[in-house]
Amino acid sequence: MSDTQITAVAGARDLNAFIAFPYELHRRDPMWVPPLRRDVKGMLVPKHNPFFEHAEARYFLARRDGRVVGRIAAIENRAHNEFHADRVGFFGFFECIDDRAVASALFDAAAAWLRERKLDVLRGPASFSTNDEVGLLVEGFDTPPTLMMPHNPRYYVDLIEGAGFTKAKDLLTYQSIPEKSRLDGPFLERLRHGSDLLAKRYHVTVRSVQPKRFDEELMLIKELYNQAWERNWGFVPMTDHEIDHAAAQLKQIMIPDLVLFAYCQDKPIGFAVALPDLNVALKKNPSGRMFPGILKILWAARKISRVRILMLGTLKEWRGKGVDALMYRHIWERAFAKGINWGEAGWILEDNEPMNNALERMGFVVYKRHRLYDRPV
Asked: CB under 8 Å to 55, separation ≥6 — which residues?
């Protein structure tokens, strides 16, 4: 067998090869969901992604006999290292044939690039950070991923662990159980009763986002987001530009009734974002190309009955008081009214006991586990 050649992406042809590789590699995987190639390119090209205002990345391709057999991104996220006071580099966008030699060569190339920047840990997968797709799927291969959640073949676990990586942290993802989440069932009745008591005791109310005042609503999200998630393991505050960029994309698919703010009297204390699982529609377009694929996506998007609770958080002083349950209750009732009967919540850090316990009490069960790995550079 010929040797593996690892080269840095240089020019449009290489970038197109980097983007195209997963569509060929995973085309027989019934669970893989092809993203729009346009969206992937928008992430990778610095001028289109505000992440690069505080980060750098180098992309690498692995080839054998001129054929692409793997890819990886090496990432220096200065915002992460400044916030956590460490020297961590990341790998992301990892895709590879089932071959340890190819995978090891890719990891070595990423590590060498990060070593030049005097970083001492290689962590991943993160494409690009915990604000994007993060973690390697290690449990839950028999169900499809939801919007903005990664999916990978089982053999990736062996490729990564065989290259000397060890577990850094697990991320848990929950799904609703139909028999526990019926609107007329005892579980939701108890949730309504408990959340009504909370609302009355603390004078807490919930309202939906107002699309006509979207710019003002976005200012409120900025105010709450970095406070609500502060000091979570791996968390990196988003810049105003990054939040604007993400909001512009999510605005196109959001259902206003499923984007909520919680208030104590007139003070905002938390928010939640639940999005329709657009992956159901993206699955109908295996090529990932805009045309004619966008027509298939738009048609399939009319019948989505799944939702992902992407974000839900409260200010520190309101944690553990049931505000999260109040927002979950409103999301679930409003989702059912729109024909949505299945929900995913997550991801949640494995050691975030308050949130994990709350989800379990609300009838959610863990059905996927993603893992972040570390290796010395």
From this structure: 75, 76, 77, 78, 79, 128, 129
What tens digit of pLDDT does each residue of 190-224 get? 778 888 888 889 899 999 999 999 989 999 988 89
Structural domains for the chain? 5-169 (3.40.630.30), 175-370 (3.40.630.30)
Q: Report the distance separating Cα 44 and Cα 41, nearest Å.
A: 5
**Are the C-beta atoms of 368 and 137 separated by less than 8 Å?**
yes
Q: Give residue-wise pLDDT tens across range 215-247.
A: 899 999 888 988 887 778 899 989 999 999 998
Ramachandran category for residue 247: left, alpha or beta (phi over 0 → left; psi -120 to 50 → alpha): alpha
Of 188 and 337, more confident: 337
Contact 18, 74 (CB under 8 A): no
- The string of DSSP letters for 4-21 reads PEEEE--SHHHHHHHHHH
Amino acid identity at 153 = P
Token digits for 366? Answer: 């863990």
Single out the residue of 75, 99, 68 nearest to residue 163, CA to CA.
Answer: 99
DSSP secondary structure letters along 31-48: T--PPPHHHHHHHHSGGG
d(CA 297, CA 278): 9
CA distance 285 to 283: 5
In 3D space, the residue among 76, 65, 96, 71 whose CA is nearest the CA of residue 15 turns out to be: 71
